[in-house]
Amino acid sequence: MTDATAPKGDDTRADAPARNQWWDVWDQFKTHKGAMFGAAFFIIVILAVYLGPYFWTIDPTYIDIRARNSGPTLAHPFGTDQLGRDMLARMMAGGQTSISVGLTAMALALILGTLVGVLAGYFKRIDGLLMRTTDLFLALPLLPLLLVMVMLFRQPLSASFGPETGIFILIVVAIGITSWMPTARIVRGDVLALKEREFVLAARSIGTRPGKMILRHILPNVMSPIMVSATLGIATAIITESALSFLGLGFPPDFPTWGRLLFDATDFMQQHPERVMWPGLAISLTVLSVNYMGDGLRDALDPRIRGL
Asked: 99 or 197, which is more confident?
């Protein structure tokens, strides 16, 4: 006769649900100090540029000629520009534009790169055509191509959607369609390897359609390189937009971005070096934090490292 109150040993542990693999990814990500610092700094930047205007209510376009070219004060912690506009307000407005361009262009590049990579890796008949197209885009000089696109489509898009929305669409599309190629090559390589895995062969043997196969079995298993490419794509898009704005080919002068603020400050660099320092630091530190996040994600999503 057994005691009903006797302990059941490890039965409760055996019945416990399996641990989600994303918790393992998070545990590995937390061990990367640079990635944690980068993620914390990037979150702080996003909160500062999107929520900061609710607390610092000065209009970034407000002109106060009497306060022009002033240094940091209590009224203007980052000083003012040549028209007396508050640099802190313009830094927050410029950050909204630069980060929005980075996120949107990254999303477009990821969609194009993932689509091309999956199709090239899964369908052998179009692999050669898609990869040669990818090689062609990789061979094109990026900056001259962007300059040509801006010069050709700037006026039509500005006339159709307005100067701000039109330039935003142009910059996002130009960066997106010129930065999808690395993602496509990485995804294609992973898809080629996944095609020979047992679970894919088993799904194919029971007559699973290609579309369902890609959505259910292929895409979930290539999320790791896609997520790493996403972080690196944000940094690339921010730098590219800043370069175009610095050359004076980005957004209008009254629509601030970090690159445009850097361009406007070059004429006053000797008299007011802090005006170059603020947008330069914002671009550099934001890109550095995103790169650290990418390094941490790459290590956390690597199963060879994640168990150590």
From this structure: 99
Distance CA 1, CA 41 (A): 63
Q: What is the pLDDT of residues 65-83, one digit of tens each?
A: 888 888 888 888 888 888 8
* Cβ-contact 68, 80 below 8 angstroms: yes
Q: Report the 3 state secondary structure along the chain.
A: CCCCCCCCCCHHHHHCCCCCHHHHHHHHHHCCHHHHHHHHHHHHHHHHHHHHHHHCCCCCCCCCHHHCCCCCCCCCCCCECCCCCEHHHHHHHHHHHHHHHHHHHHHHHHHHHHHHHHHHHHCHHHHHHHHHHHHHHHHCCHHHHHHHHHHHHHHHHHHHHCHHHHHHHHHHHHHHCCCCHHHHHHHHHHHHHHCCCHHHHHHHHCCCCHHHHHHHHHHHHHHHHHHHHHHHHHHHHHHHHHHHHHCCCCCCCCCCCHHHHHHHHHHHCCCCCHHHHHHHHHHHHHHHHHHHHHHHHHHHCCHHHHCC
Radius of gyration for the chain, computed over Cα atoms and rounded to the nearest angstrom? 25
Is the four-CA dihedral 233, 234, 235, 236 of positive or negative sign? positive
| 4-31 pLDDT per residue, tens | 554 554 444 445 455 666 677 777 778 8
167 closest CA partner among 231, 86, 259 = 259
Distance between CA atoms of residues 288 and 111, nearest Å: 24
